[in-house]
UniProtKB/TrEMBL annotation:
Quaternary structure and partners: Homotrimer.
InterPro entries: CblAdoTrfase-like (IPR016030), CblAdoTrfase-like_sf (IPR036451), PduO-typ (IPR029499)
Pathway where it operates: Cofactor biosynthesis; adenosylcobalamin biosynthesis; adenosylcobalamin from cob(II)yrinate a,c-diamide: step 2/7
Reaction catalyzed: 2 cob(II)yrinate a,c diamide + reduced [electron-transfer flavoprotein] + 2 ATP = 2 adenosylcob(III)yrinate a,c-diamide + 2 triphosphate + oxidized [electron-transfer flavoprotein] + 3 H(+); 2 cob(II)alamin + reduced [electron-transfer flavoprotein] + 2 ATP = 2 adenosylcob(III)alamin + 2 triphosphate + oxidized [electron-transfer flavoprotein] + 3 H(+)
Domain of life assignment: Bacteria
Protein name per its UniProtKB record: Corrinoid adenosyltransferase
């Protein structure tokens, strides 16, 4: 099997049900999801250095990586013959995990700077790329028909990645750095 096909040498790529220019908003959206997935993979590799401490987060992130491929598949589907397959179940699971992580992390009242431990910083990168993918999906949905689930999934994923980054820092006893000029913006986000 060859890795290269040469079919994209003229600036077009295949979707499920058609071909488009490589800079099409649909391709931009699922390409950005792939970028977020790569940062999540990097975070998993970093967390595996302390696998026992982060087994739950590693398991979540590997599950999320598969789901991001599902999101990309949904966005690349331009045929009515193939039904959408992504469901709300992964979103509900992430909401449950976000609630658990909010309870584990230190109390949050102000904006924090992205960073901390290496894996936490990588998840903050993944979070910002996820937000970009979310914006691109909104643009896509204004222009064409697309499944609504990837948008909701990416919105929840950015929250999950923020919560997970904070828990990683907490477990490693690396304090979050508050944004110096932040007003008190979070109220009742956790019990601590």
């Amino acid at each position: 099997m060859r890795l290269y096909t040469k079919s994209g040498d003229k600036g077009k790529t295949s979707l499920i049900g058609g071909r488009v220019e490589k800079d099409n908003i649909r391709v931009e959206a699922y390409g950005t999801i792939d970028e977020a997935n790569s940062f999540i993979g990097k975070a998993v590799a970093e967390l595996k250095e302390q696998e026992k401490l982060f087994a739950d987060i590693i398991q979540d992130l590997e599950k999320i990586q598969h789901e991001l491929f599902d999101c990309g598949t949904e966005l690349s589907n331009v045929t009515e013959k193939r039904p959408y397959t992504l469901t709300e179940e992964p979103i509900e699971y992430m909401e449950k995990r976000i609630d658990e992580m909010i309870d584990e992390a230190p109390k949050l009242e102000r904006f924090i700077l992205p960073g901390g431990a290496q894996a936490a910083a990588t998840l903050h990168l993944a979070r910002t790329v996820t937000r970009r993918a979310e914006r691109q999906i909104v643009s896509l949905m204004k222009a064409e028909e697309a499944s609504p689930i990837p948008l909701k999934y990416m919105n929840r994923l950015s929250d999950y990645l923020f919560a997970a980054a904070r828990v990683i820092n907490a477990r490693l006893e690396v304090p979050d750095v508050e944004y110096a000029r932040s007003a008190r913006v979070f109220r009742g986000t956790n019990k601590k």
